[in-house]
Amino acid sequence: MRSWQITTRWLLGSQFAARALGLVNNVLLARLLAPASYGDFTQAMALASSLIPLADGGVSAIVTRHTARRPRAYIVLEASIGLRIVQSLLLWGATTGAAWWILDYTRIRTALALAGGYWAVACALQLLAGVARARLQAHLETRAVLLERVATVLLAGVGAWQWGLVGALGGVLAGGSVALAFYLRALPLPRGRFSGRMWKRLLALGAPLAVADLCHGVIMRLDLLAIGMRYGSHNAGWYGGASALLWASNLVAGSMALALVPVAAAREEETQHLSVRVLRRMLLTALPLAAALSMGAELWVRLLYGAAYAPTADVLRMLAWCLVPASVVAWGNAVLLVRRQTVKVGIVAVGGLTCLAYCLYWWLPLGLIGASYAQLATQCGMAIGLWWFTKRTKAVAP
Question: Which residue segment(s) compose the domain that 191 sits in?
Answer without folding.
Answer: 2-391
